[in-house]
Write a structure and sequence with these properties.
With 519 residues, the chain is an alpha/beta fold. It is built from 19 helices and 15 strands. The strands form three sheets. The protein has a seven-stranded mixed beta sheet with strand order 4-10-9-8-7-5-6, sandwiched between helices. Strands 1-2-3-13 form a four-stranded mixed beta sheet. α8 crosses α16, α9 packs across α15 and α18 packs across α19.
């Protein structure tokens, strides 16, 4: 790579020094390098008429100064340059100063190494996926064995054994374990939003009523069905003309911080919020034919928003009274994230349908909508040779093998209990962080799903400060995200295998980053 880059620079320098020097003096292998390795594009570029020095320089950046560093390009820079050239520009944000993003190369446990060999502690679990740790040995072994035996089957036509075994296991850890008097039945998908859309379809088929009550701040994915029930305008606005009109949003009763008003007053305010939510739902139901209520037990993407106590129980009672299905989106909160197998268990609430994904496999695209057996049978007709909801990779064998290993690992290592125990430590440590004179800190969490909200003294979102802390943490070797509509909540959701010492060091690093960014 350096040889081609140096050759290119030498030729460019010659062109710059002598305008009569023909463009084809630049060796084709050098041009090809900057065309992403495509020889045909390199040849076409050189042969194209009216190619000036500025056109050549445009291959390597917006100005000629970029040429000074090309020969010293790191592997991360090379990857990001290729992405800028060949990936849709709306996907990967690359900062101009080179501080963001890093390029992941490998990961193990709670550690991640970038393409240039730098090591990081992952406080995100890769978007909440790696609950048993990155590259968990048991999960990796299951994947390797399966991919060498049967990497793909035929979805809804010719099944494989592991799909049946995983469907049974999901029934066992949900509806059977919840002792609701029946089994669970599953519709598999690939990504989390597909599980949500399967649940929405199930509700429509079962009730015949298209309306769905969802909540402000909700994030259920970006497929068109899931996007319709996702609240944030940032995601919805560009596509609003193509979205269905079946979703109705009610207020999400966010639990308030006790430090702001005191325990007694906070309890009263929480009750007022819950009553406001339930009143809004009654009003919606009076105008629309509602078939389901869809909710995240904890809103993750919205900034680790934890509802008031009793919210899920109130939803369950309301759904029962109004013959409406309760759908829980446990894609983020499932598989031990909140210190229980599923977050609904904190209030002993049993849903009609539960959506699963992310940590289901620990790293393979697989999701599931699991529903009460009698509901699923009432909603979905018997197969006659053509399923009305399916996909090519439905119940992929590799994903099923990894999911079974992942569930086994969660059980064998007691990671659910570990999440509950270390989650208390994490929240205690966050509460000890010293606030700066310019910021208000609002820590909240349940299990290893915590957030540190940053507010200005007037209680407006401290977005720039949160983003600065996130970048400073990355510089110091910690991967953390700024979540929420205003990106002012530092989200901490590490692998459940993280140790107490790593938690304490991470929180100390956050405190130091806050102090540095406040200067």
């Amino acid at each position: 790579m350096q040889q081609e880059a140096l050759c290119f620079l030498a030729a460019v320098s010659a062109c710059a020094a002598n305008a009569s020097n023909p463009m084809h003096a630049i060796p084709i292998n050098a041009i090809t390098f900057f065309m992403g390795g495509d020889v045909s594009q390199g040849i076409a570029f050189v042969k194209s008429p009216n190619k000036s020095l500025l056109a050549v320089l445009d291959l390597v950046g917006d100005n000629a100064a970029d040429c000074n560093t090309i020969a010293e390009m790191t592997e991360s820079q090379r990857v990001l340059r290729l992405l800028r050239q060949f990936e849709s520009r709306n996907v990967t944000f690359v900062s101009r100063d080179g501080s963001w993003p890093i390029v992941w190369s490998r990961a193990k446990g709670v550690r991640v190494w970038d393409a240039d060999g730098r090591r990081y502690v992952d406080l995100t679990a890769g978007f909440g996926v790696a609950n048993t740790g990155h590259a968990n040995a048991r999960v990796v072994k299951a994947a390797k064995q399966q991919i060498s035996r049967l990497p793909h089957a035929m979805g809804d036509v010719h099944p494989h054994p592991l799909k049946a075994e995983l469907a049974r296991t999901l029934s066992q850890i949900t509806f059977e374990r919840w002792r609701c008097g029946q089994d669970g039945k599953t519709v598999f998908g690939n990504s989390g939003f597909e599980a949500v859309e399967a649940a929405l379809k199930t509700a429509m088929l079962a009730t015949g009523r298209p309306g769905v009550i969802v909540f402000e701040g909700a994030y259920h994915g970006l497929g068109y069905g899931a996007l319709t029930v996702t609240h944030r305008d940032f995601f919805r606005a560009p596509f609003i003309k193509q979205l269905g009109g079946f979703a109705c949003f009610a207020p999400f009763p966010l639990a308030g911080p006790i430090w702001a008003v005191g325990a007694s007053a906070a309890l009263h305010e929480d009750q007022v919020k819950l009553e406001k939510t339930m009143t809004a739902m009654e009003r919606i139901a009076g105008k629309r034919a509602i078939g389901a209520v869809l909710v995240e037990p904890v809103q993750g993407r919205a900034g680790i928003r934890i509802p008031v106590r009793g919210f899920l129980s109130a939803l369950r009672s309301w759904c029962d009274a109004n013959d409406v299905l309760l759908i829980l989106d446990e894609i983020y909160t499932g598989f031990g994230r909140t210190g229980a197998w599923f977050a609904c268990e904190h209030e002993n609430v049993v849903p009609d349908l539960v959506c699963l994904g992310k940590a289901l496999t620990g790293g393979f695209p697989l999701s599931a909508c699991v529903g009460k057996a009698d509901l699923m049978d009432a909603a979905w007709p018997e197969a006659t040779g053509e399923a009305i909801h399916t996909s090519t990779f439905l119940g992929n064998p590799i994903g099923c093998a990894m999911a079974l290993a992942q569930i086994g690992e969660l059980k064998a290592r007691g990671l659910i209990e570990r999440s509950a125990r270390l989650g208390k430590l994490l929240l205690e440590q966050l509460r000890l962080i010293r606030a700066t004179s310019r910021l208000i800190l609002n820590p909240r969490g349940i299990g290893l799903m915590a957030g540190l909200e940053l507010l200005q003294r007037d209680c407006s979102p401290a977005t720039s400060e949160a983003v600065s802390v996130m970048k400073e943490m990355l510089r110091c070797g910690y991967i953390i995200l700024a979540e929420g509509e205003f990106s002012n909540v530092l989200s901490i959701a590490p692998p459940l295998t993280i140790g107490a010492a790593d938690i304490q060091r991470a929180v100390h690093a956050i405190e130091q980053a806050l102090l540095k960014c406040a200067r």
